[in-house]
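Consider the following assembly input.
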Amino acid sequence: MTATAYALPSIVVFVTAAVLIVVGAIGVLAVRNPVHAALSLILTLFGVAVAFIAQSADFLAAVQVIVYAGAIVVLFLFVIMFLGVGRSRHDHVEPLVGQRPLAAFGVAVTVGGIIVLLARSHWVTGATSASGSSLVKGTGNVHQLGTAIFTTYLYAFEATAALLVIAVVGAVVLARRERATEEAE
Amino acid sequence: MNVPAAWYLVLAAVLFGIGAYGLLTRRSALIMFMCIELMLNAVNLTFVTFARTLSDIGGQASVFFVMVVAAAEVTVGLGIVVAVFRRRHSTSVDELTEMKG
């Protein structure tokens, strides 16, 4: 495979990630309803995860989806619902015209893309991919990152444990103290 | 060959700019937190791009720590938002003027 043969898949991946990121980011600013803004934020976070995979940061892409989209955005949505900020706007049954045909089209494109990828076996085996080579030959991304974190950055890693405990305690204190004063009143 | 690193850097810069614009213009504390997340993600993308370009795993390790700090920041920040909302029934940062000099 020559260099030009790799160029097109990587360009397609980059354009996909760029569209996801920019559209989601503009959506966060443009949308009035905070719930929709949080959903746009998920779009951006997935685009960043795609960009991570395209640059051989596999573990960080997984963490991006699990921690950001799975935990932080859910926390955002929980607070939005808890505060009732978006309660004034009621969702209609079908606010977007042609939502169902567009959804069917998107699902068809996704499934078709997966089938096309499966048909090209070298993408499945990872012999060649759009992501290019890993940072160091012979070792996986998770192996390299784990080695770096548990050797070079061990003290910083231990400090993050303390930071997370402090954050959890701080969040609990912030929530409880207000409730105690309300009961006192 | 992968696409040039400059493309990802420009994309990260655009993302950071959008996040900074939203942080400066919006007045809802929740939206401002989301814009901070956008800016953190832009910086993460820059870190990963340079880790790929320079073949140094340290950039990806930095992203790992940025994610941990972002999680802690969102936890405490949203706790503050909830505490402020209970007292004032609003998330607008313009109404928090008690410490105005």
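Residues 1-87+121-133 of chain A form a domain with the Four Helix Bundle (Hemerythrin (Met), subunit A) fold (CATH 1.20.120.1200). Ask yourself how this observation constrains the way the partners meet.
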